[in-house]
Amino acid sequence: MVVGISKQERLKTKEDLFEEATNIYDQLVEWRRGFHVFPELAFEERVTSSRVFQILKSMPGVEVTQAFGETTAVIGKISGKREGRAIMIRCPMDALPLQEETDLTFASCIPGVMHGCGHDAHMAVLLGVALLLSKRREMLDRSVVLVFQPAEEGLGGAKRLIDAGLLDSYNIDYALGFHFWPKYGYGKLLLKPGIMTALSDRFHISIQGVGGHAAAPHLAVDPWTIIAHVILAAQALVGREIDPTESAVISFGHLEAGEAHNVIPEQIDLWGSLRALNVEVRDFLQNRLEEMVPLLAKTFRGLGTIKYHRNYPQVINDERLTSLVLRIARDSFGDENLEILDRPLMAGEDFAFYTQVIPSCFLLFGTGGKYWLHHPKYDVPEDLLPFAAGLEAYLAFCLSNMLSMGEDEIG
């Protein structure tokens, strides 16, 4: 049985939160654009971290810690009436090694670095949540911990914070994660109980040949021929060695080779990503890649090596917590603004590390839009910032008061 505030009290608070979130629209946009114009890569978010720290410090009732775990992380805590068993809301801070092509007036001023995944907007939204909840801290039963996390984009910032004791230090029992998500219904809340995202790994293939002149390939060992066979064979692994009812994908994103059009290079380096929904499928594909690369290279008189890194596990939404989140959202917004995904996403997300340890729920905000995440023209619709801030604050408020302090299970 869920205990705490009544439905009427919740709905009244919802109206107040969303009205105030709308009123701070200009502030949310200012914060977002400030982060967007000065993006920083994973574990390098020093200016970003300092800015987040200063903004949080200006809010009454927010206890702020900078550089948690000897990283750029910033942690804000809004204490509830009872200590212990806090609720965490996490947002990432890092940008991508990407040259921006949006032509926005506040486009990145750092060449080759861009907030192409919306983390600038996530930070602005969570600062809005902090502002909204700090004014209502006396109404919170549980504490709410706001985690501005470094290094979501591939370097495992979440795991670094967990290993540094984040969850124990702040008595965190539940975690919420949010992400703006293009190509889905504008303004819709999207989620899925159970497995939400694929596990996501990365690998580096290096092919060593013998360089030579383009006019005399017979005197060289051409690594281009080898790498071409490796790429085709990798796709055949998914298409011909995996059960068609399973889901997996191998993609290549970065290649370094050569310096001239008429010179066969000595070496080619190729980086790629492997995603799967089943751990056994991942294990099989990893083993096959590690077998195949050196054998294919040897077939063409070259040398091939692969370094495989198991990166992110699956995001697994806790069934009971997700059920409660759904009930709060459905009661407040109606079914027309909710979408339960019928299958997991093949995206990787390091929020997965939290879901391995504590009951967690990862949600998506649909933004529509033409460009996908990690595209140089990707942009977040700024008119969704108040909605996201209001919704995140409302969910945290409700969960703070509906998750009973003495129960191990969610009613």
UniProtKB/TrEMBL annotation:
Biological-process GO terms, alphabetical: diaminopimelate biosynthetic process
Cofactor: Mn(2+)
Residues where Mn(2+) binds: 117, 119, 153, 179, 374
Domain Peptidase M20 dimerisation: residue ranges: 202-293
Gene3D superfamilies assigned: 3.30.70.360, Zn peptidases
Keyword Manganese included in the entry's annotation: yes
Keywords, alphabetical: Hydrolase, Manganese, Metal-binding
Cofactor binding mode and count: The Mn(2+) ion enhances activity.
Entry-linked InterPro entries: Amidohydrolase (IPR017439), Bact_exopeptidase_dim_dom (IPR036264), Peptidase_M20 (IPR002933), Peptidase_M20_dimer (IPR011650)
Any coiled-coil regions, as ranges: none
GO MF entries: metal ion binding; N-acetyldiaminopimelate deacetylase activity
A UniProt-annotated Pfam family: Peptidase_M20
NCBIfam families the record matches: amidohydrolases (TIGR01891)
Name of the molecule in the record: Amidohydrolase
Species of origin: Acetomicrobium hydrogeniformans ATCC BAA-1850
